[in-house]
Write a structure and sequence with these properties.
The structure holds two protein chains of two kinds.
Chain A lengths: L7 E6 L4 E6 L2 H7 L2 H12 L13 E4 L14 E6 L6 E6 L3 H7 L4 E5 L6 E6 L2 E6 L8 H12 L5 E4 L2 H4 L7 E3 L3 E3 L4 H7 L2 E7 L11 H15 L3 H9 L5 H7 L13 H4 L4 H7 L1 E5 L9 E6 L6 E4 L3 H6 L9 H14 L3 H16 L18 H13 L2 H6 L3 H8 L3 H4 L2 E2 L2 E2 L9 H9 L12 H4 L21 H18 L9 H12 L5 H22 L10 H5 L14 H12 L9 H6 L3 H7 L2
Helix pairs in contact in A: 1-2, 2-21, 2-23, 13-15, 19-21, 19-25, 21-23, 21-25
Chain B lengths: L1 H23 L9 E5 L6 E4 L15 E4 L4 E3 L8 H10 L5 E5 L2 H8 L9 H7 L4 E2 L7 H10 L5 E4 L3 E6 L2 H23 L12 H7 L2
Parallel strand pairs in B: 6-7
Antiparallel strand pairs in B: 1-2, 1-5, 2-3, 3-4, 5-8, 7-8
Helix pairs in contact in B: 2-5, 3-6, 4-6
Classes of the chains: A alpha+beta, B alpha+beta.
Chain lengths: 619, 215
């Protein structure tokens, strides 16, 4: 018997209503661990390049990891993986909260969903039993209401729900899967794929277990008693605990990292000051909240008592405060709290939403669109009422919102007249709130990330802020602007983050990698040392790359928006800088074992135990 | 349920062990300083040491169980006079489950001289980051509670002018370690200042911390 895992995967075919249980074999588990790594193996095997994202044959995989639901802290996450309708390539999005552990308590490591229901349904899993239930009465509800209603009708407040809102139903290309009224698997449009399958929600409950037993349970318990201090000694943790992730806003602005006015300004101290985590704590914070077994407690519960933006619930994260705030020159904190709530309720990714609105503001400023195009909404910089109005339009795919609901890349193509030149995305995924001109390694990371413009597949800016990770061979102190040596650290961190996404572990828990290997060993009973773990990360990274190559990605796609390559900012912490991508990219391919076209070489794939993938790429 | 009871008894014993250990190392006096810990992570109730009872002789049954409204739920003794700031911290910091207040002599002495803790070792820099000096407020008052509550955001340690030190953590080990490292660092600074200078780690090597904590 495998420890950590339940050893079972649920397969649900929504077309014919057939539900089956499959075994997760130990050799596969050890090779891909779980999370997005294991999901990648399944999707690579089952989704052909001809299968369009909204084709019923596309798979939607919900996956946990071997440590999910055990005693170990900050592992209570789940991944949602598919082929992205936004980018057409690999999609993974992750969320925390309590859903992942509950799925394991209910008896499954993951769920593979295929087909398409004829009418709206939701999936209900309780103690190993799964049932497809009608959801016509839920269709049209927002994600918060859906969660409440499902709990009511199942008569159990402990049911955990992952749901889509209006946006997922209407196939907004960046629709998200929302859980716990504020934990969001946000990026790449996984919620739209869920909507295309007419699947409103997945509700889970396990009443027989409250933790997943580990192989060396007592050893793990004793270890954990002594490890919290290590987790909490990372300097950002005290800040996240007190001020949430938005507690880093002022610092990131100082670096010139926080994008302002759609990546065109480097300095906006007076505005930033009004939307920091500190300001949030003073003005609207009610209390902090924690996800499953998390000692960091970075979630915010906020309240805006009166006015047009009155709300109470989950507060904005850094990415949200920056994308719907600084990126749009919006310094109205209350409007950000409301915007965040609306995005969560509609079920849309706040990063892409902020990007889409800021892009439209620049289009209007340049005269490419007028108020006539935007349904009378004046998309001028800093207009928070307009931002709120446009979120409604995107969520409902109404008017101009219908165009922005396609994402920035497609919107720019449609608007034309040079709009593509300043559209900021990589492979169709909009750039998160870290400007690569402030941290050059981030530029390389964005250009090569398997889901497009993504900060979480490496978080290389941490290394470029001077952090060392000796366990992974990063002993030197790296400066942020030089490009020398960046290819190696980007690869190292990308591989390691793929490990974290397979386990699945929260990235705010900066545990030394060797300690992560120790936790996995105690949970599973395997003796798994760091080199083996790192190889898993390299394997899954290459597997996802191979999936993308099959979907048509080429070296030409491994690039950055023109704005980062050619247009330096005139002020702020990265004044005068552009990303010298070519220098880093050639070295990156070489160190990765990819050819000049960015395709993993046959021998590289074989060395990672991906012989079948090598055969399919190198026919 | 049984297991939960055992865990709580173990927690109470750990509070006592911490108190004795701090007393033995001269960081607490017999009647100075106090310790509390939430009954479980995130709970609205906590165990706290009693007021005025000699630390080396404390036993688990001397502890008092309180809630965040200041009500006494279990125990027969008077809780530490400083329960106001323990409550203030728990109310502000959901991530904090343990609070330790000591009269660490060297750290408190440096604060009396207006000396803030400097980044002199990497361990100190990571653990202590920023240790603000809180202006004097009369001990045992609600006002001190409110002042501490205002200062604890973003900090793991506070130096109370003319009073002592507060360390907080997710668990007792973290709070205890913070107190230990603060005193170690303060001692090193004291030695250095005796010889007239105190070198710090180059700013460049602790850039993240300096920018994040504005130190």
């Amino acid at each position: 018997m495998m420890h950590g895992y339940t050893g079972k995967l649920l397969r649900v075919n929504l077309s014919d209503g057939k539900i089956s249980v499959e075994s997760l074999e130990e050799d596969i588990a050890r090779k891909y661990l779980g999370g997005s790594g294991l999901a990648a193996r399944i999707i690579y095997d089952e989704v052909s390049p001809q299968t369009a994202p909204f084709n019923p044959e596309n798979r939607l995989v919900f996956m946990t990891g071997p440590v999910t639901g055990t005693l170990a802290p900050s592992f209570g996450r789940f991944a949602v993986c598919t082929r992205s309708p936004l980018t057409g390539i690999w999609a993974e999005s992750h969320a925390a909260g309590f859903w992942g552990p509950e799925l394991k308590f209910a008896g499954y490591d993951g769920i593979i969903i295929q087909g398409k229901a004829e009418s709206p349904v939701y999936l209900w899993i309780r103690d190993g039993e799964a049932e497809i239930r009608r959801a016509e009465h839920l269709w049209g509800m927002d994600t918060y209401e859906t969660e409440t209603r499902i709990r009511q009708e199942l008569g159990d407040e402990k049911v955990q729900v992952a749901a889509i809102g209006d946006a997922g139903e209407r196939l907004v290309k960046f629709a998200a899967v929302v859980h716990d009224k504020g934990r969001v698997a946000g990026r790449c449009g996984t919620g739209a794929v869920m909507g295309s399958k007419m699947l409103k929600a997945v509700a889970v409950r396990g009443t027989k277990l409250s933790t997943i037993p580990s192989a060396r349970e007592e050893m793990l318990k004793n270890f954990l008693k002594r490890i919290y201090i290590t987790i909490r000694s990372h300097p950002t943790v005290q800040i996240y605990a007190s001020y949430g992730t938005d507690g880093i806003l002022a610092m990131m602005h100082e670096y010139g990292d926080t994008p302002i006015k759609y990546f065109t300004r480097g300095e906006w101290a007076e505005g930033v000051e009004r939307i920091t985590g500190e300001t949030m704590a003073k003005k609207i914070l009610v209390r902090q909240k924690a996800c499953y077994r998390c000692p960091i407690v970075c979630r915010r519960h906020v309240r805006v008592s009166e006015g047009p933006y009155a709300m109470e619930g989950e507060g904005p994260e850094y990415e949200t405060a920056a994308s719907l705030g600084a990126l749009c020159l919006n310094d109205n904190l209350e409007s950000l709290a409301k915007a965040n709530e609306l995005c969560n309720k509609y079920g849309i990714d706040t990063i892409t939403t902020g990007n889409a609105i800021a892009f439209a503001m620049e289009c209007q400023e340049k005269g490419l669109i007028t108020e006539k195009d935007t349904d009378g909404i004046p998309l001028t910089w800093g207009d928070h009422q307009a931002i709120i109005g446009m979120i409604h339009k995107i969520g409902k795919r109404e008017g101009f919102g219908n165009l922005l609901a396609e994402g920035v890349k497609r919107a720019a193509e449609k608007i034309g007249r040079g709009a593509e030149d300043f559209a900021v995305h990589v492979k169709g995924l909009e750039i998160p709130m870290h400007d690569p001109r402030a941290f050059k390694g981030m530029g390389l990371q964005y250009a090569t990330s398997h889901r497009g413009g993504c900060h979480l597949r490496g978080l290389v800016y941490h290394i470029e802020q001077g952090e060392r990770t000796p366990d992974l061979g990063i002993h030197e102190r790296y400066e942020r602007f030089p490009t020398e040596g960046k290819a190696r650290i980007v690869i190292t961190m990308q591989n390691w983050h793929d490990v974290l996404d397979s386990l699945i572990m929260c990235k705010f828990t900066f545990l030394p990698p060797a300690s992560v290997a120790a936790i996995l060993s105690m949970v599973t009973g395997w003796t798994i040392r760091l080199p083996e773990l790192v190889e898993v990360g390299e394997r899954t990274y290459n597997l996802k790359r191979a999936f993308n190559i099959r979907c048509g990605t080429t070296a030409k796609d491994d690039t950055l928006p023109k704005r980062f390559l050619e247009e330096p900012l005139l002020d702020g912490g990265c004044k005068g800088e552009v990303v010298e991508l070519d220098r880093m990219l050639a070295e990156y391919y070489q160190l990765r074992g990819w050819n000049e076209n960015g395709i993993p070489k046959k021998e590289k794939l074989e060395s990672l135990g991906l012989d079948d993938v090598a055969r399919s790429l190198w026919k | 349920m049984e297991e939960k009871g055992a865990e709580e008894e173990e927690l109470k014993s750990e509070i006592i062990r911490c108190a004795i250990s701090l007393y033995q190392r001269g960081l607490m006096t017999g009647i100075g300083g106090n310790i509390s810990a939430r009954v479980e992570p995130g709970a609205n109730e906590f165990w706290i040491t009693p007021s005025g009872l000699y630390k080396p002789r404390l036993t688990p049954e001397d502890l008092i169980r309180m809630d965040l409204d200041g009500n006494i739920l279990e125990g027969i003794f008077k809780p530490s006079n400083e329960w106001y700031f323990h409550v203030a911290i728990y109310k502000r910091r959901a991530d904090v489950n343990a609070v330790i207040h000591t009269h660490s002599p060297i750290a408190t002495g440096l604060a009396l001289a207006g000396q803030t803790i400097k980044p002199i070792t990497v361990e100190a820099t990571m653990m202590l980051t920023r240790v603000p000096i809180v202006p004097f407020v009369y001990p045992g008052t609600k006002e001190l509670g409110e002042t501490v509550g205002e200062h604890i955001m973003g900090n793991r340690l506070l130096l109370l002018q003319n009073h002592g030190v507060i360390g907080v953590g997710y668990d007792l080990i973290e709070a205890l370690s913070a107190i230990e490292i603060l005193e170690e660092c303060a001692t090193m600074m004291l030695v250095a200042s005796h010889f007239g200078k105190c070198e710090v780690i180059p700013a460049h090597d602790i850039e993240l911390i300096k920018k994040l904590y504005k130190i």
